[in-house]
Amino acid sequence: MTLSERALLEQQVANAERAFSKTMADRDLAAFERFLSKETVWKSGPDGERNPLRGPAAVVGFWKRYFEAPTAPFSWAPESVHVLDSGELAISAGPVLDAGGKRIATYTSIWRQEAPGVWKVLFDWGVPWVEPAKP
Question: pTM surpassing 0.85?
Fold first, then answer.
């Protein structure tokens, strides 16, 4: 894979991540679901660390609570995106911000290219944000 091919795929994933986040801002749960792979695994729910949500129905069933209010409770955007040389998988990571713009978590998503130019979330893992200690 050339550098320009990798850059193009990484841009596709970054754009997919931004469009995925926009589903939250738009309050569009059906559009949110369309970004999920059939095999998606999410560290969400009451015991996401040991028993993550599996499959779109489980993720949507849990996440619908975040789409009920008229405004989004949080947002996210990619800070970094990297694609495997095979072009099949990518990782994106970045901040999760509350409605007021304060960082509350960091997310990491693994994306799979399921058709040319079609990226779906395979894994999603988030961790609470801890402000770094000041020296």
Answer: yes
